[in-house]
Amino acid sequence: MSDTPVTEESVTTDQFRRNLDQIRIDPVAKGPELTIGDIVLQFKKKAPVKALAALVGTTNQVEGMLTYIRLCLKKDQEEKIEALLEEIDIEGLGAILNALGEAYTSFPEKS
Questions:
Q1: Cα–Cα distance, 65 to 79 (Å, whole number)
Q2: Alpha carbons 3 and 81: distance in angstroms, whole number
Q3: Is the pLDDT reported for residue 89 higher than 80?
Q4: Helix (H, G, I), strand (E, B) or coil at 39
Q5: Residue 43 to residue 70: CA distance in whole angstroms
Q6: Where would I find the H helices in 2-60?
Q7: pTM, entire model
Q8: What would the pLDDT profile of 17-42 be if each residue is shown by its tens digit?
Q9: How far, in Å, CA of 20 to CA of 59, rounded?
Protein backbone atom coordinates (compact mmCIF):
# COMPACT_ATOMS: atom_id res chain seq x y z
CA MET A 1 0.00 0.00 0.00
CA SER A 2 1.03 3.56 -0.53
CA ASP A 3 2.17 5.78 2.31
CA THR A 4 0.42 8.74 0.69
CA PRO A 5 -2.49 9.84 2.83
CA VAL A 6 -5.89 9.65 1.18
CA THR A 7 -7.56 13.03 1.20
CA GLU A 8 -10.94 14.13 -0.08
CA GLU A 9 -9.19 15.97 -2.93
CA SER A 10 -7.22 12.89 -4.06
CA VAL A 11 -10.32 10.73 -4.01
CA THR A 12 -12.29 13.27 -6.05
CA THR A 13 -9.47 13.70 -8.57
CA ASP A 14 -9.04 9.96 -9.03
CA GLN A 15 -12.75 9.51 -9.67
CA PHE A 16 -12.62 11.76 -12.72
CA ARG A 17 -9.53 10.46 -14.48
CA ARG A 18 -10.29 8.89 -17.83
CA ASN A 19 -8.04 7.63 -20.59
CA LEU A 20 -9.82 8.27 -23.89
CA ASP A 21 -7.09 7.15 -26.28
CA GLN A 22 -9.60 4.84 -27.99
CA ILE A 23 -11.53 7.79 -29.46
CA ARG A 24 -8.71 8.73 -31.82
CA ILE A 25 -8.96 7.48 -35.38
CA ASP A 26 -6.22 4.93 -36.02
CA PRO A 27 -4.12 6.43 -38.86
CA VAL A 28 -2.98 3.03 -40.15
CA ALA A 29 -6.31 1.20 -39.92
CA LYS A 30 -7.80 0.30 -43.26
CA GLY A 31 -10.82 2.35 -44.25
CA PRO A 32 -12.89 2.63 -47.40
CA GLU A 33 -11.10 2.35 -50.72
CA LEU A 34 -12.58 3.76 -53.92
CA THR A 35 -11.31 2.99 -57.40
CA ILE A 36 -12.05 5.43 -60.22
CA GLY A 37 -10.30 4.36 -63.41
CA ASP A 38 -6.64 3.96 -62.53
CA ILE A 39 -6.92 6.11 -59.38
CA VAL A 40 -7.33 4.35 -56.04
CA LEU A 41 -8.34 6.57 -53.13
CA GLN A 42 -7.70 5.31 -49.62
CA PHE A 43 -9.68 6.79 -46.77
CA LYS A 44 -9.40 6.83 -43.00
CA LYS A 45 -11.29 4.16 -41.08
CA LYS A 46 -13.78 6.75 -39.78
CA ALA A 47 -14.77 10.25 -40.85
CA PRO A 48 -13.14 12.89 -38.61
CA VAL A 49 -15.40 15.34 -36.79
CA LYS A 50 -13.73 18.20 -38.64
CA ALA A 51 -14.78 16.61 -41.95
CA LEU A 52 -18.39 16.27 -40.79
CA ALA A 53 -18.40 19.89 -39.62
CA ALA A 54 -17.11 21.02 -43.03
CA LEU A 55 -19.83 19.05 -44.78
CA VAL A 56 -22.77 20.42 -42.81
CA GLY A 57 -21.41 23.74 -41.63
CA THR A 58 -20.96 25.58 -44.90
CA THR A 59 -23.24 27.48 -47.23
CA ASN A 60 -21.11 26.44 -50.24
CA GLN A 61 -22.17 22.81 -50.62
CA VAL A 62 -19.57 21.90 -53.24
CA GLU A 63 -16.72 23.27 -51.12
CA GLY A 64 -18.15 21.43 -48.12
CA MET A 65 -18.16 18.14 -50.04
CA LEU A 66 -14.60 18.69 -51.28
CA THR A 67 -13.34 19.50 -47.79
CA TYR A 68 -15.12 16.46 -46.35
CA ILE A 69 -13.49 14.17 -48.91
CA ARG A 70 -10.04 15.72 -48.45
CA LEU A 71 -10.20 15.41 -44.64
CA CYS A 72 -11.34 11.77 -44.85
CA LEU A 73 -8.46 10.79 -47.15
CA LYS A 74 -5.41 9.10 -45.71
CA LYS A 75 -2.15 11.02 -45.90
CA ASP A 76 -0.37 11.18 -49.25
CA GLN A 77 -3.63 11.04 -51.24
CA GLU A 78 -3.88 14.77 -52.03
CA GLU A 79 -2.35 14.57 -55.50
CA LYS A 80 -4.69 11.77 -56.49
CA ILE A 81 -7.85 13.61 -55.49
CA GLU A 82 -6.68 16.87 -57.07
CA ALA A 83 -6.00 15.08 -60.38
CA LEU A 84 -9.38 13.37 -60.19
CA LEU A 85 -11.23 16.65 -59.56
CA GLU A 86 -10.15 17.81 -63.00
CA GLU A 87 -11.78 14.73 -64.58
CA ILE A 88 -15.19 14.59 -62.87
CA ASP A 89 -18.30 16.74 -62.68
CA ILE A 90 -20.67 17.41 -59.78
CA GLU A 91 -22.39 14.05 -60.30
CA GLY A 92 -19.02 12.33 -59.92
CA LEU A 93 -18.35 14.26 -56.73
CA GLY A 94 -21.77 13.21 -55.44
CA ALA A 95 -21.03 9.57 -56.32
CA ILE A 96 -17.81 9.67 -54.28
CA LEU A 97 -19.64 11.24 -51.35
CA ASN A 98 -22.44 8.66 -51.55
CA ALA A 99 -19.94 5.79 -51.65
CA LEU A 100 -18.19 7.19 -48.58
CA GLY A 101 -21.50 7.60 -46.78
CA GLU A 102 -22.34 3.96 -47.46
CA ALA A 103 -18.88 2.79 -46.43
CA TYR A 104 -18.86 4.72 -43.16
CA THR A 105 -22.35 3.60 -42.11
CA SER A 106 -22.56 0.03 -43.43
CA PHE A 107 -20.04 -1.54 -41.10
CA PRO A 108 -20.35 -0.05 -37.61
CA GLU A 109 -17.45 -0.33 -35.20
CA LYS A 110 -17.65 -2.99 -32.48
CA SER A 111 -18.67 -1.50 -29.18
A1: 17
A2: 59
A3: yes
A4: strand
A5: 9
A6: 8-15, 49-56
A7: 0.77
A8: 888 999 999 988 999 999 999 999 99
A9: 33
